[in-house]
Write a structure and sequence with these properties.
single chain; 274 residues; alpha/beta; Rossmann fold; 2 domains; 4-stranded parallel β-sheet
Length: 274
Amino acid sequence: MSNTYQIYLISDSTGETLDRIFTAIKAQFKNIDYKIHTYSFTRTENQILKILSEAEKIPNSIILYSIVDSNLAKYLANISSDKKIPCFGVLGDLILSFSKLLNQKASHLPSGQYALNDEYYKRISAIQFTMNHDDGNLVKELDKSDIILLGVSRTSKTPTAIYLANKGYKTSNIPLINENSVPQILKKNPKITCVIGLNTEPERLVDIRKNRMNSLKETDNKSYTNLQKIKKEVEEARNTFKKYKWPVIDVTRKSVEETAASIIKIYEIYKQNG
């Protein structure tokens, strides 16, 4: 008998929310094998029957679903029960609880989080801004940023900035070689907006940069991965952040999501004090 669990992720929309929830769940259980079966835009009983008929034939099947139509969700739960397949909904009870708390009936519209509202357009604008202000571009417009990230090479500035942009924050990022790399607009007004330094352990940075060089098949630039040079870079960055009194986040072994969460907290404090 196979010990691999067959995880069926069934969603009436893109499945992004469900995928993230399962990623969080499986992180809690190590040394377990999973095979993921993703079904997006599942909005009819026929679709559900077809999926469950397949799941029924495979041992260790588990259903995880995100369906806002209460009748369709109930149908899925009932058929799963009849077929003795474990089935878990991630939205039903939550929506019902909020409906009672807010004293308002839920719309039960699939893809409601993707409605073309002001928040959506704000996010699109932030993404466009962030892409245009990546890697030290358009420094004359830094004052239009919600957040400015500074850090030495390979401290996850760009992926963190893009993640923040998807949350609606206009984010600029600036590579830091030494204090001379700091744009004049920031030197004149270090508190022009929420400015945050990203730093990391030199030893960790060596590994990251070596991997980067290998992926590009470059071998000439030895100084880029030299530990002593990197230690000097990191120390100079630390001194620069201290000089301008910018908060610093150590990104060593932090995921982009964890770094972004810390940045958002700092930004909220900045706005409160601003």
